[in-house]
Amino acid sequence: MTATGPLLRLDRVVRRFGGLVAVNDVSFEITPGEVKGLIGPNGAGKSTTFDLITGVRPPTSGEIRFRGEDVTHRPAHTRSPMGMARTFQIVRLFRGLSVLENVQLGLHPKFPDGLWPSLLRYGALRRQEQRSRERAMELLAFVGLADRAAHAIEELTLGQLRLVDIARALAAEPSLLMLDEPAAGLNDAETRNLGEMLALLKKRGVTMLLVEHDIDFIMNACDSIVVMDRGAKIADGTPAEVSRNPEVIAAYFGRRAAHAAA
Ligand SMILES: Nc1ncnc2c1ncn2[C@@H]1O[C@H](COP(=O)(O)OP(=O)(O)OP(=O)(O)O)[C@@H](O)[C@H]1O
């Protein structure tokens, strides 16, 4: 990455599933410090795009660069040591471990998404206990959950679990934090709390990509927003720009309004 270059760059990315083009020639960039949103109606291709960026699956064609490096075909587990971290729509935390221990798992720079490798690495983490506990406590304090550190993960609300998942992702000190529907299932107070947390992260210079269904949330949280519809990018601009874009209104807001009226 050059001093002024994008942190992440998608260039003419395509993903087909058989005859279906789920992501159709999509290009966009995320600059360092930017909070980027990715929205669109159901089936627009958001999750697939997210999967291509995180390396869950490769694109059919096109290129993805992270910090200037071609990562198009790099497997998911090699992207986290490069500085990508993600949270999950269905939070994947470890039952039977405390809140603190779950955040400690994120301190391992090669922490993968799978269960067994994580548990194996958990043994190694225990040996650097003190430093890792302190760092995990700092992260929990940052997300406002220091007083829950010793609690079992099962005792937390969904909103709290999302914050723990963010703390876990931040533990790797990522240069790009990707959030998969962070507001899904949260009540109004929890959504506000999450919004405040993301604003704080933004102030600290954390670059983020948010895939989200909650339009109000994304409009408030993001510097710029990519809008997809039926696999294609139909807009990319500030929240004000995309919300007055006629194509976006027709494809997304119009459809939502029609749905609400039905
Ligand atoms: N593994 C897959 N195999 C076949 N088709 C898929 C697969 N994953 C996604 N698709 C299809 O690709 C298209 C885009 O799906 P995707 O999940 O990326 O959209 P989305 O914008 O995330 O939708 P939603 O908001 O409903 O989650 C849809 O038509 C979907 O059915």
Automatic annotation (TrEMBL):
Pfam families: ABC_tran (PF00005), BCA_ABC_TP_C (PF12399). PROSITE patterns: ABC_TRANSPORTER_2. GO terms for cellular component: plasma membrane. SMART domains: AAA. The keyword Transport applies. Keywords: ATP-binding, Nucleotide-binding, Transport. This is High-affinity branched-chain amino acid ABC transporter ATP-binding protein LivG. It comes from Kumtagia ephedrae.
